[in-house]
Amino acid sequence: TQDTPTRSALSGAKPPSAPTARPGRVKISPAARALADELGVDPSVIVATGDDDMVTRDDVRAHAAASPPAKPLAPMRRAIADATQRAWQSIPHVALHSHADVGALIERGGVSLTAAVARASALALSDHPAFNGWLVDNAFEPSRNVNLALAISTPEGLLAAVVPAAETKSVAELRSEIQALAASARTGRLDGARMLGGSFTISSLGRWGVDAFAPIIAAPQVAILGVGRIDRVAREAPGGGVRFASEIQLTLVFDHRANDGVEAAQLLAAIVGYLEHPQRLEVRA
Asked: What is the pLDDT of residues 93-139, one digit of tens each?
């Protein structure tokens, strides 16, 4: 999100800088130090007004009153933060970028891009099962079905709602199920069981104008797909000249412990192939 300009920025005035720690030993009375410890204030950044640059209790109170209070994270936000930190620190993330021309898909009319990407991913994962599952105790556990987790934005934070056995469902069926899951998640009525068992995650920021991004893997899953917005770009037309294409940016992030780049590139190419040839998205017999 874009930051809102402050009053000082709008007026051209330079905003005040935050206090910096003073070098050397801080002169502070025992009573002021005890108060600083109680209020969680660092004495080295307090402006001293006492004799001989001594930090007083009044200085501590003034500094604490001028400092914005810390805002604890909500339980869900805290859980998301902890899971994200563990995943980022423990997983060697590698991101591969590509794009898909979805012009033929758009021409079909009434097709949900999210559902089409879900369908394309499910079919591609069926052909590349090494990315559909979990890495547990340094061993890969493949999932029997493609249980797609869709990242859904809610007022409390991101939730991952799972569509089980997505490879068995048509684009229309996926669209209906995804819409129902999103509505339940945003109204706080999502069944907890529908947030478990995801074997691969899709996260989209296209509706917010994001071109491309590399999401963090939802451990113990081994891959995640980031989907950007549709963009009109100029491409060389067959036989010469220029044509305009409707493309989306796709970023596949994978756990390098579980797979290598060539296999990941093949999975990403398969997803692109399904999206660029929407007739292949039909339900398999």
From this structure: 999 999 999 999 999 988 899 999 999 999 999 999 999 999 999 99
Residue 115, class by beta-carbon neighbours within 10 Å (0-12 exposed, 13-18 middle, 19+ buried)?
buried
SS3 177: helix
Residue 9 has which token pair? 């920025």
1, pLDDT greater than 60: no
Taking alpha carbons only, the member of 57, 54, 45, 48 closest to residue 18 is: 45
Contact between 171 and 123 (Cβ < 8 Å) = no
Which two structure tokens, joined as six digits, stand for 187? 């109204």
Residue type, 130: A
Q: How much is the pTM?
A: 0.76
Q: What is the DSSP string of 60-115?
A: HHHHHHHSPPP-PPPHHHHHHHHHHHHHHHHS-EEEEEEEEE-HHHHHT-S--HHH
Tokens encoding 57:
């209790």
Q: How confident is the model at residue 206 (pLDDT cuts 50, 70, 90)?
A: very high
Nearest-angstrom CA–CA distance, 278 and 110: 13
- Measured between alpha carbons, how far is 197 from 143 in angstroms, rounded to an integer? 9
H or E element at residue 264:
helix 261-276
Cα separation, 264 vs 261, in Å, equals: 5
Other Cβ atoms within 10 Å of 112 Cβ, number: 17
Indicate which residues carry an active-site annotation. Answer: 256
